[in-house]
């Protein structure tokens, strides 16, 4: 998709502030610093629209970006700074959990992991939680420009194994906001789930 028109519609702190037009939504989740703002800005051809790195301890809000007046990207706060507790449901806010598990308009979740490393415990927990709810998931392995050519298969295997990747609802894609590698594939996935 060639994007010309994006609006930040709102930062929602409660469900009453979510959009009410029923258009499709795609959530983006990942640890702070994984490259979520960079991915978002690459997809929508903007330099600085999506904010970089949510600050630790900041009030958690869902940011809705209205794209071409047809669907929304929903930026979910980075989870890297939250202390992980034993129970999955305590690992991130109740608001986010409720949003992801009950939102009818949610067509899929783009779950970002760093292509260079094995997924963190939190990445694994997030993925498995999404899988449990049988949500279509696009696992995007970011910063792929930092991976040597010969190491792609290995990196993909490590990530999939750690996540217990489920091909029935999940797709895997390398991505680089520097080279834009993977951009078309990410758009294809979004459009095929619209
Ligand atoms: P966020 O906290 O998840 O929104 O992460 P950002 O998009 O702000 O990126 C965090 C850092 O990683 C920044 O310094 C980015 O420049 C860098 N970064 C993001 N994407 C890429 C990428 O594809 N390749 C490389 N080499 N660096 C990236």
From TrEMBL:
Domain EngB-type G: from-to ranges: 22-194
Record-linked InterPro entries: G_ENGB_dom, GTP-bd, GTP-bd_ribosome_bio_YsxC, P-loop_NTPase, Small_GTP-bd
Keyword Disulfide bond: no
An MF annotation (GO) of this entry: GTP binding
Source domain of life: Bacteria
Family recorded in the similarity comment: Belongs to the TRAFAC class TrmE-Era-EngA-EngB-Septin-like GTPase superfamily. EngB GTPase family.
Function: Necessary for normal cell division and for the maintenance of normal septation.
GO CC aspect terms: cytosol
PROSITE patterns for the chain: G_ENGB
Organism, scientific name: Convivina intestini
Pfam families to which the protein is assigned, alphabetical: MMR_HSR1
Biological process annotations from GO: division septum assembly
Keyword terms: Cell cycle, Cell division, GTP-binding, Magnesium, Metal-binding, Nucleotide-binding, Septation
The protein's name in its UniProt record: Probable GTP-binding protein EngB
Cofactor names: Mg(2+)
């Amino acid at each position: 998709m060639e994007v010309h028109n994006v609006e930040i519609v709102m930062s929602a702190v409660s469900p009453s502030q979510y959009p009410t037009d029923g258009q499709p939504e795609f959530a983006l989740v990942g640890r702070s610093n994984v490259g979520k703002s960079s991915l978002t800005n690459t997809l929508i051809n903007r330099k600085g629209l999506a904010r970089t790195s949510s600050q630790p301890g900041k009030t958690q809000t869902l940011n809705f970006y209205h794209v071409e007046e047809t669907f929304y990207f929903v930026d979910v706060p980075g989870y890297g700074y939250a202390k992980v507790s034993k129970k999955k449901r305590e690992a991130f806010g109740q608001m986010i959990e409720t949003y992801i598990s009950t939102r009818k308009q949610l067509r899929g979740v783009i779950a970002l992991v760093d292509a260079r490393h094995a997924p963190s415990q939190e990445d694994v927990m997030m993925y498995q939680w999404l899988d449990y709810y049988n949500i279509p998931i696009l696992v995007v392995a970011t910063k792929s420009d930092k991976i040597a050519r010969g190491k792609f298969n290995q990196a993909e295997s490590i990530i999939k194994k750690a996540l217990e990747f489920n091909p029935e609802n999940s797709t895997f894609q390398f991505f680089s906001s520097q080279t834009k590698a993977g951009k078309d594939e990410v758009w294809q996935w979004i459009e095929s789930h619209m």
